[in-house]
């Protein structure tokens, strides 16, 4: 099975590539080749004997999607997206990449489907950003996507396209709304959500971290390992029993900031916790308080998707990988 | 207030035009002019002294949206769409008109908004076709749009675009999911839903009608007059209290086929009812049984949208207009 990863240079794309190569298989099939595409040229993975093609390409450019499908991959991971803040700041860019790029990909697959009977599994990453206020405390699988950002709108539109192209038989799609990734590796950034990881990652490295919201803030989390696991699981699932709904919120850990901090205390002690400095930021609080707190993910659960075992497990994964 | 109607030649567009001219006002403002656009040239209304421009135009053609906005209408009624069956049969046409046409309209408004501060009220007609199985017996305002047709997908995507362009302040949008229109005037047609009107309209004209489904089938109805009333009401509403959700299911009458028939009996007697011939059609039944039966429309109710008083009132409207 040849695998195409669009957005292969990102954090999840790189982990997914490594996990596929380590497993040597995808779903029930041996991994026979890889095409890795991103706006910056992805790195070819070490330790894989099969053919690997790496390309720097903009999926919204004419012909780019068809070129990416040259090997007729049996599985397409579509992770490529302009992120939330950028899609809000540059409306044209967000719609071009997140909406038009996705539509052009599905249209390129449709063209091959009509010409050759091609019908790949497409695994599309969506986002909790499809949900907007007012929200119930626990959001079920029937809850309306009503986004409060252009990024969320573009992801919700991608979900609808994925369902329609699947229903028509051009592709066999599944969309995953990923929880907020925690602990996100790397440097602190300006994302409103950055502190959820920062208050763990920085103290674990002996560095101070700022907490801009109250301890009572609750959110929905998955480790990078769990997120990669969702993608791998989605690649191998039998989707023939699904109806027209094709995108599902992934299971996660619902945790408050206080619970994050207690996990840090258990893992690294009071000295680590003491590195967290409370600096309430009303601007960040206004953003965060519109976000979902918890989900009832029974459809994804029934499909066999598995959350992290606990917030302690999320933290332990980060500690193990930071060594 | 200058008013633009896109899709002005359709059944609802013609009624809306006549209702605006009869009222001489729209919302709280006098009606000062009309631009009527459709793929076929709409008729100019009689009895209106102000300027009227009628155009045959394809909204998905380059420049068509900007041309339609020449008078900078304060209110844009966007009723233009390729209908459900046609959008399913011709996928490219449906996406081009229903998705691209809507997006091009909103982009043309955005360009004027950024250049001149233009910000019209946009009233967009969506559809119950945004909902797909599995459905609860009564569908609330929080229920997920998960369409089972390309038409439904295109309308759901239009709802998302309307919300995003409203949130960003380029336009002041409201979307109305119209109930199934009953009694639809005109000839019997091949639409799966045709019998809902046919079993009333034909017997009232002394003609036989075919009923292809059981008497127990339940659905959600509005008269042509109520639908026009929703549009007029939407034009004048203060929407400043709305959040990011901008499209709402309109109130309707939930009625079974048996209740339709009893209304016909009350209005026109047993001889009319005897003209209904039961010819069960499993193909039509399979389509109809996936459709919604009833809605909880509390958001639209709170906004002051009003359903017909009863199914008898729906029938009485048709009888009065047929004289």
UniProtKB/TrEMBL annotation, chains A, B:
InterPro entries: DenD, Epimerase_deHydtase, NAD(P)-bd_dom_sf. SUPFAM superfamilies: NAD(P)-binding Rossmann-fold domains. Residues 3-207 form the NAD-dependent epimerase/dehydratase domain. The keyword NADP applies. Gene3D superfamilies: NAD(P)-binding Rossmann-like Domain, UDP-galactose 4-epimerase, domain 1. GO terms for molecular function: oxidoreductase activity. Keywords: Carbohydrate metabolism, NADP. The keyword NADP applies. PANTHER family: ADP-L-GLYCERO-D-MANNO-HEPTOSE-6-EPIMERASE, NUCLEOSIDE-DIPHOSPHATE-SUGAR EPIMERASE. This is D-erythronate dehydrogenase. It comes from Methylobacterium hispanicum. The lineage of its organism: Bacteria, Pseudomonadati, Pseudomonadota, Alphaproteobacteria, Hyphomicrobiales.
